[in-house]
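Supplementary Note 2. Why include the ligand at all?

Several targets in our set were suspected to adopt different conformations when bound, so apo predictions alone were not considered sufficient. For every target with a known small-molecule partner we therefore ran a joint prediction. The input for flavin-adenine dinucleotide is given below.
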Amino acid sequence: MYHYIIVGFGVAGYSFAQILEENQRNFIIFDNQSQQSTRIAGGMYNPVILKRFTPAWQAAEMLPYALLQWKKTELKFQKRYIYPIPIYRKLASIAEQNNWMVASDKPVMRDFMQPISFEKIEGVNSDFGFGILKNTGIVNLSQILDDTKKLLLKKKLFFETNFKYQDLKIYPDYIEYQGIKAKNIVFAEGYGLKKNPFFNRLPLTGTKGEMLQIETTANIPYIVKSNVFMAPDVTQKGKYYIGATYNWEDKSNRPTTEARKHLEEKLRQLFTGKYQVVHQKAGIRPTVKDRRPLVGKHPVYSNVFVLNGMGTRGVILAPNMAKALWKQIEFDIPLLEEIDIKRFK
Ligand SMILES: Cc1cc2nc3c(=O)[nH]c(=O)nc-3n(C[C@H](O)[C@H](O)[C@H](O)COP(=O)(O)OP(=O)(O)OC[C@H]3O[C@@H](n4cnc5c(N)ncnc54)[C@H](O)[C@@H]3O)c2cc1C
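The joint prediction is reproduced in token form.
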């Protein structure tokens, strides 16, 4: 008998597995690679909404624990996954300069927002300067998933297969799936939740995002942000990610020519250097109607749980939401009302 079955191995499933491992609970994972959100994400952590210069919900408060968990992953594999990199927000007007200065004076923002800088950045001009954000950066999520999966495959704890919901049998004290017994099951399928008959009534909307990878000789050691961001590829010198798009209609993982055109148009407004596009990728962010995560227990089955709705901020949210779910299951500690799926009657 396992303690847990986890369905889905994106940043949510990974974060829950990490807590289980820390607490000596055994588990197995099923993943069918139907969703790509974590694998293609920029992996940035940044607690400030860069459009309005306001704090993202709970992000500043949750960042330390998230970074601690990613640090533990580094220690486990003796490998670097966290890359602290400041974000340079291109300011477009005097009004934006003023807004930046006002916002950076607020106590919750002081740890992040720095004074305006007129530093020269190769290929990036800004008449009104840049608002600098510190204590931000990138976590190499896809490498973490690859390294962890390799280890779990070796231990025969990872199944690269589709989870068939109709084969799940639920009993009061345990669940059974194709002859495998476990005390609990946690569904963390990202946008794949739409096919899950236990939770598909939750208002997961899904927002497609696409990114380009470009190659250039320009050396830009920061994440630069205007209408799009340009972020260094932390694994390959001379390569950068340009992103991202937001599409609420198309729910496929296929890259499109429209998105490439859109991103290149915005990139040309930000970056004057020469470049070539070397890759394009797309995924569906598991976004929710009220922009809060979906965490909690099934209303009927006490051993069936969901961990989803990480939206646009999986790097910061997933470790924290995994911890909250763990505490609920093991210690009956109530979830914040804002994240508990009970809020949807
Ligand atoms: C273009 C883009 C850029 C982004 N940039 C950032 C960023 O910079 N910073 C940030 O914090 N967030 C970013 N995000 C958001 C972040 O990627 C998501 O919040 C996060 O990846 C969601 O993780 P998840 O584990 O819930 O879902 P997913 O990563 O989608 O993982 C779900 C997994 O479940 C599997 N699955 C589904 N159904 C089944 C089934 N029936 N059986 C077996 N397996 C199943 C899927 O194949 C998948 O592997 C970005 C997203 C996109 C699309």
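The domain at 2-41+142-203+289-343 is CATH 3.50.50.60 (FAD/NAD(P)-binding domain). The longest strand covers residues 276-285. Comparable summaries for the other entries are listed in the accompanying table.
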